[in-house]
Write a structure and sequence with these properties.
The protein is mostly beta strands. It contains no helices and 11 strands. The strands form 2 sheets. Strands 2, 4, 5, 6, 9, 10 and 11 form a 7-stranded mixed β-sheet that branches. The protein starts with a strand and ends with a strand.
Amino acid sequence: QVQLVESGGGLVQPGGSLRLSCAASTSISSFYAMGWYRQAPGKQRELVARMIDGGRTNYADSVKGRFTISRDNAKNTVYLQMSSLKPEDTALYSCNAGRRWGTANYWGQGTQVTVSS
């Protein structure tokens, strides 16, 4: 079974930066898509950023220009660099990996990001 482990969350002041990591138990290059989702209290889970076929990326409008998704195949890790953080970015951030054609889908346990002064 594929395992995804997120790390890097924490408390940061507005305007600050944070880098989240998602370490996979297998080669991330074998996944069709990998991405980051977040869910705040009382809100639905939403897509934050996604990387498809190791290249094409998608971002939520609310994070464009501030967040960047990247990968390190040698470390089987996907990153989410978060800059210019806002209080509304506060949420539980979870990593997702999917096989081509939707044949399999995996989730990590999530890492909490809190943006507050």
